[in-house]
Amino acid sequence: MTSLRDRTAWLEGGQAVCLQPPPEVRRTWRLVLLGPPGVGKGTQAEFLSRALGACPLSTGDVFRAAKGRAAPPGSAMAEAQKCMAHGDLVSDETVLALVRERDRCLHCKGGFMLDGFPRTVTQAVALDALLEAQRVRLDAAINYELPTSQVISRISGRRVCPGCKAVYHVTTRPPVRAGLCDHCGTKLVQRPDDTAESVAVRLEAYHAVTTPVADHYRAQGILVSIPANDEPAKIFAHTLDALATRFALA
Ligand code: AMP
Questions:
Q1: pTM above threshold 0.90
Q2: Is 82 considered catalytic here?
Q3: Cα 250-112-66 angle, rounded to 5 deg
Q4: Count of CB atoms within 10 A of residue 149's CB?
Q5: 8-146+220-247: CATH class
Q6: CB of 54 closer than 8 Å to CB of 106
Q7: 60 lines ligand 1 (CB under 6 A)
């Protein structure tokens, strides 16, 4: 698997359909990726997508994609974008409405990796119900663990491609040509919520409400913890090893 999955249905919602069908996969993986902002979930999602075929579904990307389309003032999406700009979490109600609108992505035969969702126990419980209604189950919740000081350094160096959403870091994962995406040549940007002030708010929100989400999956026996204080390729190798061990893959 070399190319990233087409995520049109996820990013646009509503009646939008993916232009490319999901790839043929040996196993349909359904995963949740957990960890503080900046831990590298987006990068791991990209690696895992290429290796396993599962589609990286980020709720943050849905909000960022909608930003370019100007939400009507006062609408749920406009409120969500305001929260996001301050680094605050968007309300459970809005996020869940958005995920429900895209529930067909959850039973896509190519599989999925949820990134940035669920972020609260309320969202995790709602996701359990949504998956149960569709008769599909999560294989694992992968929890990437990293000390706060390292999280801050990672976020401030992060650059993203507004075109294909590939993620880079100015020192640990630079593009081949400075400032330009390796995949599509688009000029890389820093996300507006990657500023120091936004990061502080996001980390506080993470510790207050997202840590219990890991406990939720631990109680279900599907939490897989991976130390994330290493190079992206090594973290990825540890992740594959952990999945292979857990699912006895050949
Ligand atoms: P991310 O790209 O996952 O870091 O998300 C960027 C921003 O989008 C977050 O700081 C929140 O404002 C918002 N967001 C994304 N996903 C969620 C979620 N599951 N619950 C609440 N807010 C979210």
A1: no
A2: no
A3: 155
A4: 8
A5: alpha beta
A6: no
A7: yes
